Amino acid sequence: MNDVTGLELRSIVNADCTLTLSLEEVVLSSPASDEIIVRVEAAPINPSDIGLLLSSADIRSVRLSGSADRPVATFSVPQGRMEALQTRIGVSMAVGNEGAGIVVDAGRDAKALIGKRVAMAGGGMYSQYRKLKQNDAVELPENVSSVAGAAMFVNPLTALAFVETMKMEGHKAIVHTAAASNLGQMLQKICLHDGIPLVNIVRSAEQAQILRDIGAAYVADSTDPDFTGKLEDMVAQTGATLAFDAIGGGTLGSQILEAMEHAANRTTTEFSRYGSSLFKQLYIYGALDLGPIVTNRMAIGFEWSVNGFLLGPFIKKAGSEVYAAMRQRALQEITTTFASHYSATISLREALDPDTLKSYCRRATGEKYLIDPTR
Amino acid sequence: MNDVTGLELRSIVNADCTLTLSLEEVVLSSPASDEIIVRVEAAPINPSDIGLLLSSADIRSVRLSGSADRPVATFSVPQGRMEALQTRIGVSMAVGNEGAGIVVDAGRDAKALIGKRVAMAGGGMYSQYRKLKQNDAVELPENVSSVAGAAMFVNPLTALAFVETMKMEGHKAIVHTAAASNLGQMLQKICLHDGIPLVNIVRSAEQAQILRDIGAAYVADSTDPDFTGKLEDMVAQTGATLAFDAIGGGTLGSQILEAMEHAANRTTTEFSRYGSSLFKQLYIYGALDLGPIVTNRMAIGFEWSVNGFLLGPFIKKAGSEVYAAMRQRALQEITTTFASHYSATISLREALDPDTLKSYCRRATGEKYLIDPTR
Asked: What's the gap in Å between the CA of B179 and the closest CA on chain A?
């Protein structure tokens, strides 16, 4: 086959404190022996994609230029944010963590995949064509569409990583925040299936209902006046000593650790000046609140740990066998446990449209966009 | 030998929101076969002792009653602090983590210790006599006085635990805060001896001088206008990825993690949206600031951990061999590396004197009190 030419969404930070999104024409040379070229049919917009796409740019400052077919969106980046972006300046970056599509060309060792539908990980998926190693792709079953298979990696593997972490580190129940999210719903389904108690923290009655509808037994609404007491009860009932927090900034993580400490002290009759001997683990994996993490250490004793959590380092730590099993489960349950629902499907061009862009950047619960680069 | 009677300093929290310190007469029955009775000659007042002694009581509210020989000091406890003290209410607690003295009686298996001078751990050392298992005591060399041997456990073992933690967790240098403290000076001496780079953070030029006088190569003064830059330079030069923080509340711990992240990014040319891949560990072991820990997570990537640190759980994790070696080293270097200097020696009665009490509760750098219960 000849070289393949297609459009690719690119994000670049410029030295003049701007960030530019554009569609660039790229030429893919013939695949190496272990490579495939995929015509991308579907790629979700995950919160982590928005982080790379727009970084610290001010979304309201968007200015559109270029042509209708090849729009260019330019944003201002606050001066104070530029230092952290030094290594991005002038580097045109491809975006899109995961996607799915049809294999249109393959190297010598991957010929069997030609014509097959695959799910892919590895970045640069907001493209008409993507060349990658066959090991970074998974063949989808016949009955699974690209839309259904596009989000097989980020959320499913993260939710499964939470459960694996629980097992590896010897906990028996989990607390999760922003729990009605796409990821949170997957986690609840896994936990129901595997018999793992999960305490869901949400921020509205509507979100609580989403989780109850899929069978959640423990849902605490942080807008409830008795949130603290209810959370503590649920932590005591489940014995949860592990939490995954999507929010990060503020005091919610600390409140969870405090609930765990209080629950531990309920069964203690002897005074310990250093707090309970119960080890409490909080992982921060998301950044819905960019502010500082505020930990009330006087209320949680000394037996606690607060850590950043990222899928990549977890996979390294867990090892290839655990990772293979996680991928296998994600594939098997892609249309059930790990089904994603999209509120809109857009083209590459539309991803640069100011109104559409503001809309998918809202990250509202239940709202998730899909890019279809064939449109 | 007959029963031994002596005075013991006791702290009790009362349901009426008060805390009382008193000297109680206690009778020690004959020691069991593996026990000894020690006439306590010296017991230091460590910050951790003050925590148990006075808890959340308001020091300024002190009211003295009782007799000159048996004074009673009573304090108010703020209502809001009482919940955390529920399990202390009505429990008369002995105080004093460590001390030294002469063995005056011993059970069948410990007779060889009679007349010997020992260092002790295990609490209740602010007493004229203390009964304990011989395993909780260490015989001091002939030339070591009780004053010199009284503080063999808390600070020396904590400082040694920092170094052991560094080795166990694969770091190669350490950052320490409130570094001119008694403990900090010990840590600097250990690190100089063992060839471990140590970055000392202090809060005044005087404290910096204390450390330079014992040979410190890296001292950063947080009151220096260029503190941030200097700290970052020192972290980069030493490759420190591990910090022990005595302060806890506020942003200093986060500033250390940020310095580590910046130092890591100095050598990076490629943009990583998740920050550096350098793992950064902060342990909070002290509580000079009781406020919340404020962690600026947007400036430290995802590869970080903030934990409480306490000697007891560390020893469990490290195992008995490591612990035995640490104790042995503390004993061998008790008059050199681990020498403590006291600004005043007081009697048990004086420990309840309002002015003296306010003075030793100030926890000023270089000020450390010793109780001599024989006075």
From this structure: 21
